[in-house]
């Protein structure tokens, strides 16, 4: 019973971390050479950690939580894009992290690319096929953002693991 309560509390803390990172990232000015709406994806650090260390259900819960807040804060289109990108990338990151030699950098890149692909599909459905012209920029930026999220998780991993142990996980 203690482990289950610790899991719920830890999941809540990861959810708060994901939302805080998403909020802080929203405060950053848009980079001029990127497609509209392109972000670093720092909140995906929490989902990547959750999927690899706590389990896929926890990671998917974080993706749904972030998508729900995007619906509330930025509208239906942003919510659909956040939810689709978050769910798809979390599953892919979980699959990559199941491999014995998986690196956090490769996992971050795979997650970012999947996130961009899922969001591109939603954008295509909501707008037009013209969004395919964003693909080169999204691939380049996705690779860089994925490396960044992998590095951030690598740096954040020791304190996250310590916190998880303290919560009985």
Largest sheet: none
Total DSSP E strands: 0
CATH level-1 class: Mainly Alpha
- Category by helix and strand content: mainly alpha
Key features?
169 residues, mainly alpha, Arp2/3 complex 21 kDa subunit ARPC3, globular
Commentary on this structure:
This protein has 169 residues and is mainly alpha-helical. It has a single domain, classed as Arp2/3 complex 21 kDa subunit ARPC3. The chain has helices spanning 2-27, 44-54, 56-74, 76-97, 104-126, 135-166. The mean pLDDT is 87.
Would you summarize the structure shown here?
The chain has 169 residues and is mostly helical.
Task: Itemize the secondary structure elements and their pairings.
Layout: H1 2-27, H2 44-54, H3 56-74, H4 76-97, H5 104-126, H6 135-166
Helix pairs in contact: 1-2, 1-3, 2-3, 2-4, 2-6, 3-4, 4-5, 5-6
